[in-house]
Specification:
68% helix, elongated, mainly alpha
Length: 130
Amino acid sequence: MEEKEKKYFRTHEDLAIYQLAFETAMQIFECSKKFPVEEKYSLTDQIRRSSRSVCANLAEAWRKRRYRAEGVAKLNDCESEAAETQVWLKFAVKCQYLTVEQGRELYGTYNQVLTGLVKMITHPDDWLLD
């Protein structure tokens, strides 16, 4: 039986899912600069925190990949933060801080992020250290 070859990644920043999440968090940051000042400590803060947290938790999961349970738990945190970001995006659209088109694009990108995270969670042997 042939052993499955693992793709080599030096750091979490080499992962396409990290790159996508980081770029999207930066897009959210730029869009959120235009949110009303009264949202500074609520929606603006929340959407920035959750979008950035996807990346931060992915970095932590990468560093904990020697330990299956801890690595997968961190990926579950990433998944939760990505889903939370989608909720904040819906609020931003409903409050008319983002256009429907902007919201759909960002929400769709987080669907891609979530798909990648779920794949990593359900197939941890592809990225864990043995």
